[in-house]
Specification:
There is one protein chain. Helix content is 65%, strand content 0%. By secondary structure, it is an all-alpha fold.
Length: 520
């Protein structure tokens, strides 16, 4: 029998209209979820969303003065608001630290259109944006609203997103109380949700908190392999990890390669290398083949006990078992030599990577950037950055921070501006974090024209300079009588609305490199 694609996808309507679900096994709460999610990607989302459309809608969202203004601007823009486009816009708002209320107005506007359903990605992103700004009341209101319209969107992933933001600012008790609220919100309040809670506690609180909550709630759920793998990953105490490993086997749950890898990791971090080797042997006895993660953890442990040469040998030995090192394994071995201040050996390993067809990534380069930063070696840092550009490897925020801090130390304005222009052109690094350091350099050197240009570039990309940086620029411009330029910057800053970020210069979606201590 020929299966026809649904006709409504050929309509010129901006949104998917409501259709009957007669004869379909679909979610009664979301009668078109089967069609819209299976076939939407085959039509509208199949065609790449034009970047200009994403940019247009993003600009409308961050510059809207009111919900009414937002609606009118979206209608007059003529942009097709597909799920794919909305996902991209929500992602832009998230990474630009946009105003959460403007983002919510955009989300609600599209959500209330007849026959339209958000994707899990846009929904979870909206929850993240609200949570980052501590708008917890709005989060619960949105969850209740979505439970009514499309309960299938409230997933264990949603649970983890919300709890992750709550756990950052609330106690363990409050986090668990929030977890219990989801019982009335998710389709199934099961082990997957319990695992989301445990993962949140491991990441945002402590392993001991996760252990205590596990023991207090485990009788209400059925712990599975994933539960124990979450609890095993992250312990620094081998005794605690072994306890969970034993409990898992007592419950009849057979450990897998992930479980054993967690043990190898904890033994490696605890410098108990002999035990780590015994775990490898036990895996082979049980016919569980160690994977590249197993060997990478072992390499890391050997580096901690001061055996970088033996760790390098592991790269060769693992091939005998049919396991070939990847970029992460090489990075672990390179890190060992960097810690030992044997940069020549580290460089040889990086060249070996390339000869094996493995391209060094930003993490690889950062291992060297850290060493060059602490030796105040701007020349080698700059040469390494040029090598990155030549090979097409985009730096990440850590790379940019190491370089920019070094530029500031040595007052290299031209280098700082070249890096900044590369960021603007190629879209890498965190504008918020890098701008704080770069703007300090430009202000110190009295480069007000340059700092104004960088500010405008940053805001054109949808990123707001930190209040601390802007206040300093404002003072200097007032002293230099640059009132017109200051007025222009102030008006553009106002587009972002009042500051909603807590610890604006610190919190971000990436890990800030530790520049206060040398590699050890």
């Amino acid at each position: 029998m020929m299966i026809m694609k649904p006709l409504f996808l050929r309509f010129s309507s901006r949104y998917v209209p409501f259709i009957s679900t007669l004869g379909l096994n679909s979610n009664p709460v979301n009668p078109i979820s089967t069609f819209s999610r299976l076939y939407w990607s085959e039509t509208v989302a199949e065609t790449a969303v034009v970047k200009d459309d994403v940019e247009t809608v993003f600009r409308i969202v961050i510059s809207a003065s009111s919900t009414r203004n937002l609606k009118e601007s979206l209608k007059s823009s003529g942009v097709f608001l597909s799920n794919d486009l909305i996902d991209k816009v929500m992602k832009r708002v998230r990474f630009s630290h946009g105003n959460p209320f403007q983002a919510l107005a955009f989300f609600n506007y599209t959500n209330k259109r007849k026959g339209f359903y958000h994707t899990p990605f846009s929904f979870d992103t909206m929850l993240y944006i609200l949570g980052r700004s501590r708008r917890f009341n709005e989060i619960w209101e949105l969850l209740v609203e979505m439970r009514i319209k499309d309960r299938s969107l409230v997933s264990p992933r949603s649970v983890q997103v919300v709890l992750g933001r709550i756990a950052k600012v609330c106690s363990v008790k409050q986090t668990v109380e929030s977890f219990r609220k989801f019982k009335k919100l998710v389709p199934e309040f099961d082990t997957a949700c319990f695992n989301a809670l445990l993962r949140t506690l491991c990441q945002e609180k402590s392993m001991r908190d996760a252990r205590n909550v596990y023991h207090s709630l485990k009788h209400n759920f059925r712990p599975d392999l994933r539960t124990f793998n979450i609890l095993l990953s992250g312990w620094k105490s081998a005794e605690e990890a072994e306890g969970f490993f034993d409990e898992m086997r007592e419950m009849g749950i057979e450990p897998d390669v992930v479980s054993y890898n967690c043990l190898i990791d904890v033994y490696g971090k605890g410098r108990e290398i002999e035990k780590a080797y015994k775990v490898l042997e036990k895996m082979r006895e049980k016919e569980i083949s160690p994977d590249v993660i197993s060997y990478t953890s072992l390499i890391g442990g050997l580096g901690l006990v001061g055996q970088p040469d033996k760790a390098r040998d592991v790269l060769k030995e693992m091939k005998e078992y049919g396991c070939y090192p990847d970029i992460a394994a090489y990075n672990a071995a390179i890190r060992n030599f960097c810690i030992a201040n044997r940069l020549l050996d580290a460089e040889k390993l990086m060249d070996e990577m390339v000869s094996k067809g493995l391209n060094p990534n930003a993490t690889t380069y950062n291992l060297f950037f850290r060493c060059f930063y602490w030796s105040n070696d701007l020349g080698r840092s700059w040469s390494l950055y040029q090598r990155m550009k030549k090979t097409g490897c985009l730096p990440n925020t850590q790379s940019c921070m190491f370089l920019t801090r070094l530029f500031r130390k040595q007052e290299k304005v031209e280098m700082g501006l070249e890096l900044w222009n590369d960021m603007v052109e190629n879209g890498f690094g965190s504008y918020i974090l890098v701008s704080d350091v770069l703007f300090d350099l430009l202000c110190d050197m009295g480069k007000l024209v340059e700092v104004e240009k960088c500010c405008l570039q940053m805001m054109e990309k949808g990123h707001k300079p930190s209040n601390v940086s802007f206040r300093r620029i404002k003072v200097l411009m007032e002293l230099a009588n640059k009132h017109d330029a200051l007025q222009n910057l102030t008006e553009k800053m106002a587009i972002f609305g009042p500051s909603t970020q807590v610890r604006e210069r610190v919190e971000n979606v990436v890990e800030i490199p530790d520049l206060e201590s040398p590699p050890c």
